[in-house]
TrEMBL record:
Its cofactor is Zn(2+). Its main location: cytoplasm. The gene is cysS. Belongs to the class-I aminoacyl-tRNA synthetase family. This is Cysteine--tRNA ligase.
Amino acid sequence: MSLYEQYPISIYNSLEKEKQVFKPIHEGRVGMYVCGPTVYSDVHLGNVRTFVSFDIIFRYLKFLGYKVRYVRNITDVGHLVGDADEGEDKIAKKARLEELEPMEVVQKYTNGFHDVMQLFNNIPPSIEPTATGHIVEQIEFVQKIIDNGYAYEKDGNVYFDVRRFGQDHEYGELSGRNIDEMLSNTRALSGQDQKNDPLDFALWKKAEGGHLMRWPSPWGEGFPGWHLECSVMSTKYLGETFDIHGGGMDLKFPHHEAEIAQNKGCCHKGGANYWIHGNMLTVNGRKMAKSEGNGFTPEQLLTGDHKLLERGYSAMTVRFFMLMSHYASTLDFSNEALQAAEKGYKRLMASVNLLEKLAKPGTASIDKAKTQELGDIVDKAMKDLSDDFNTAKAIANLFELSTKINTYYQQPSELAVIDPEVFEQVIERFKGIIFDVLGLRNEAEAAQDGKTLDSVMQVLIELRKQAKFSKNYALSDKIRDDLKAAGIQLKDEKGGEMSYTIN
RNA sequence: GGCGCUGUGGCCGAGUGGCUAGGCAGAGGUCUGCAAAACCUUGUACAGCGGUUCGAAUCCGCUCAGCGCCUCCA
């Protein structure tokens, strides 16, 4: 029996607005599309949260044994800064400001995005397609929508005909909107607007004189509309119908709604079966956003060089902080919360490091109840993860396990009564969840890599032992205190042994 | 105005109609030469008001407060 059968996943499907048992289209395989970033500026922590959320989903699906194709796009055609029919392309604007070619801007921030993803230990997607790399496909897609009668061309622009579409399909099912209500709420734009209807959105835009990013099309030189690439690339790489589509909550409308309409307008199918929306990272209850000026870059996060940051935090601390809440809840950023997460993360890692120092289990007669209890904890953590990827709940169980491990270390008699086989499985799963699913890295261990440092530490430990033995506490304390000042914590253990951790 | 979400103990943050979330901080204890760490114990929590129910923080209604989307946004 595969793990995914043992721990069936349920997902809160934004489209149906209910939690549903996840059933992939093809047994054992999952296709997932996630809306990626527009690469015209540095990503901030809020952006990172969404990608961490989907990284967990990707990792967990794989952990359960699914073969996953994870597609996450790079939006490298700038959406317009101004309203629907005017304004400069964001990337072009940035290019002008930084005196770069648009594609230099794209490359720069794509690289930056990748660095950040790596910093937070996100696994790269299986395919990372760009909008500019799929102009031909996008043109074909638009043509199909026109052929189906759901779009019209006007002076080099092509618009999606929402009203016409609404006659045959439901429009607004994802975001809970309906066409008539929306219309009554839409402020009529001035006569410059070429759309037949304010609700219509652009599939293809005519490139005006100075527009830098432009491609030839049946409707003249132009560039693709804002929502098109996701429909096109998800269809190309995952098919007309696929399993999961994800993105940030703020993309629900109009982006995802338009995407569904485009998919149906082209292929008569709505794309994904399950829609997953990650919630926002907030600061003092407000969405972290560039326009709010309350975002910061990863470098600032690490160094603490930002007015919101009391000090720096490691990437894994931040990742752990994010995982301590559910992806669909808003998460409020604060220094206090981050510091709490940091301690929690270190606590968890400390118990992981303790594993190799543990005595052998099963050296006394086996206590079935205690063995069972241990096994149940890790089993619960798996069920938590299968319950809409509830990392917060799973981590609570990991802490339970952490306490157990610490106890086993201090009281080997507790470990002696545990069935070795079960113990082995529990530990393997415990580590699997921490490193493979949650994608945490053992930062202290990495810092400890140097063998030289370890030998030096052994010398110091030996000195301190001798000082203690001769009751020269002034010296033994000095060794400990000076090391602490240098960022290394010495710990006296039972039986006179000592260990150290690097902070 | 429309659509949707949230309000949990000092802080962060899960949550199911009846059974301990968890982390951080605090208090007491064990251990220790002293620490640190760890372990054990400890907290009148569920915005307010009604209603449904044998029983609700969990379901329904109203009120209050806050947030998101409706323009690009993870």
